[in-house]
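FAQ

Q: What does a record look like?
A: Structure on top, sequence underneath. For example:
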């Protein structure tokens, strides 16, 4: 079975999504909705990371139960450069880019949850199925939020 490997990839993707959400919250502190909602959505992915790690042991994988914290130095420098570039030229475009990235990462995580859910049904693993049923709806809400914010700000940013 390759479910353990799928759980490893899913946890990595959830960590990546949580990190991206926290970076977006940090870059857009002046927009209180973006700031607070992105932090809340990141907490969901961090919870998923912990839950995936707990179940992964049943599939032969030992995963870190603590969500990844700060990125390494090079990623921080790139994030800071993007932030400064966005402030200097077009903060609205930076927001569109950030929301687009969140949507794409959440869509990838959603596909991973869907695949695991199908496998869990196929092999009748109720614990794995329960995990997917608990966590996948959160990911869909993360994706819908990013999409709704994109719709809300796209016209103003792109035609101004």
């Amino acid at each position: 079975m390759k479910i353990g490997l799928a759980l490893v990839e899913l946890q990595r993707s959830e960590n990546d999504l949580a990190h991206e959400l926290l970076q977006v919250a940090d870059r857009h502190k002046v927009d209180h909705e973006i700031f607070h909602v992105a932090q809340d959505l990141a907490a969901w992915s961090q919870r998923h990371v912990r839950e995936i790690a707990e179940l992964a042991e049943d599939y032969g994988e030992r995963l870190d139960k603590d969500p990844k914290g700060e990125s390494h130095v090079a990623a921080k420098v790139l994030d800071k450069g993007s932030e400064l570039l966005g402030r200097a030229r077009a903060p609205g475009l930076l927001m569109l880019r950030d929301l687009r990235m969140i949507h794409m990462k959440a869509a990838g995580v959603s596909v991973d949850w869907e695949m695991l859910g199908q496998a869990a049904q196929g092999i009748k693993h109720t614990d794995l199925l329960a995990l997917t049923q608990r966590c996948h709806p959160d990911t869909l809400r993360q994706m819908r939020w990013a999409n709704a914010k994109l719709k809300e700000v796209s016209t103003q940013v792109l035609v101004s």
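Q: Is there anything notable about this one?
A: Residues 77 and 83 are 10 Å apart (CA to CA).
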